[in-house]
Amino acid sequence: MCYVLVKPHGVESWCITCSAEGVFLNGGKTDAGDEINYERKSAIYKDIVTFLREKSVIFSENMSKHATKFKEQQQMEKDQHDKALKKEETATFHKTASGSGKSTLEKNQINFVKNQMTRRLEPSLNWKTTLDFKSHRSSVKDSQQEKHGGKFEKVRSSASHGRAQLSSKSADKIEEISSENSSESEEDEEPADHRQEVNVDLPSEYWQIQKLVKYLKVALLDYTQHASQPAYSSLYETTDVEVARCGALALWSCSKSYANKEAIRKAGGIPLLAQLLKTSHENTLIPVVGTLQECASEENYRAAIKAERIIESLVKNLSSENEQLQEHCAMAIYQCAEDEETRDLVRLHGGLKPLASLLNNTDNKERLAAVTGAIWKCSISRENVSKFREYQAIETLVGLLTDQPEEVLINVVGAIGECCQDYENRVIVRKCGGIQHLVNLLVGINQALLVNVTKAVGACAVEPESMVIIDRLDGVRLLWSLLKNPHSDVKASAAWALCPCIKNAKDAGEMVRSFVGGLELVVNLLKSDNKEVLASICAVITNIAKDQENLAVITDHGVVPLLSKLTNTNNEKLRRHLAEAISHCCMWGRNKVTFGEHKAVAPLVRYLKSSDTSVHRATAQALYQLSEDANNCITMHENGAVKLLLDMVGSPDQDLQEAAAGCISNIRRLALATEKARYT
């Protein structure tokens, strides 16, 4: 992907996004600086030339002129070539006539006609492939017939007449193809040659994947055609299932790479795999589901899987007796459940109960990891969480927090973190002793596990009773120490978990001050380049600043200039938490004035143009605090804050109403005082 700046004749510059999907016009550079608004502003075109033809009349005219000149030059070259050929043929003819006479000329003509006929009767590449495949199928069938001896004797006798008819029809078909006239064969050859020219640019692997997909298709077609006939069903079932199984196994092996996944999708593999899911043969189902599991990591595949109604088949096979099939079905659901609609489909098709029941079998760790992963992703939807509580899955998950490999623990803790968003589940986790197990996991080193554990601990810390246990187990100190972790995801997750811990601790101010160097560490993290880390640290500062002593300490560490430097951002999440942090930091000393001196007021006014109501509320509260300084009021008025705040006075959000009205009141009071001073 790249971004191209185009300066066409007579109009303003265009900023174009060029990607694998095509070319389209984006929003261009923003007023803030060098940042680009990546939102698509036009239709998608296949290339830049097509885009410019549509958008610029002058470019289209110039391209037409060039195309005309190119065609004229091509025609001239062709005429010259034809003249040279005619001269050569004439010279050859005279030489032949004078040298060998009539017999030689007739011989050459006969050879020419013979070559043309040979070329015409030679089978095409597709015909050869079909014959090779059919011969391969025949050899498989013959070997199986020899193996099962008398079992197929009756089938042979009853089917011999049908085979004879089929052979005669095939022979007639070949004769019919061979007896085509020359003009028709030339027309048929022309697109074949064209296909070969086009196919040169594509990698050979693409066509191999296409062949594998065709094996699935042929097996399904043959089985559909012959399964209804008693004479054929037993014979075809064996070979067709085996062909489908081998094709699915090959696709499964190939589906590790992104390029192969795309090739499978473009070759029409998803509908065929969906049809194969309806078979009762477990040996075929395993590679089919395995292929879907690998491919479901891509968003395009997840949409196709949803469209083909594959989720229903995956849920059905969760109740199979085959543990390997259960594992792959659960893993496929885990991959697909990133989408909300898919999570709902799993619930509607009754997939949550078998997932909960599979938690009780802990011997097969691979299957357990897949099942807990599917439960984790399905738990993102609150309706699914209620079902898991009904099936008593929460208690089972808490029991899996010990003596399990990391692959299982990551998913178990992730599921508990999602379930603990509900009050009832937080109570269950606390009563089952889950908080102690979660705090014990905070000393690990696995990045994914730490991210999920911190989220789960933070969700539990919302309850004051759970917060007491976390504090007693030294969980807050462990969370604070994770702010030094080298991974940004772990830092951000730990910071978000600290927010409810500080908020719900009995003596939050003293607890925070007890961590040596803790406040300085938090302020220094405002220098991070990661937006999620910045937003989470701003949220932590908001909670720290509620204590006056801690606010004084972070002010001494330079929190005001660092917060002011972050105000020129377009990230809505960061804007909200940054505005809240500024609002609370204004409560100390000259911080209101200092924010104005560091040019933080004007960018905050622009936040009022956001579409997010939570950003409006946090910004209005920050501006209300800053408006107590006269210079800040002047800056707000110059940047058009009054008109934006007047619209928000009528908001249904009471906190937003009060903050907007208070800010307007301070600005108006300053204006009246200035006017009064002018006349006295």
From TrEMBL:
Q: Where is the composition biased (Basic and acidic residues)?
A: 136-156
Q: Which domain of life is it from?
A: Eukaryota
Q: Which InterPro entries match?
A: ARM-like (IPR011989), ARM-type_fold (IPR016024), Armadillo (IPR000225)
Any Pfam family from its record, for instance, is HEAT_2
Q: PROSITE patterns per the record?
A: ARM_REPEAT
Regions of biased composition (Polar residues) lie at: 157-169
The UniProt entry's coiled-coil ranges are none
ARM repeat residue intervals: 517-559
The protein depicted here goes by the name: Armadillo repeat containing 4
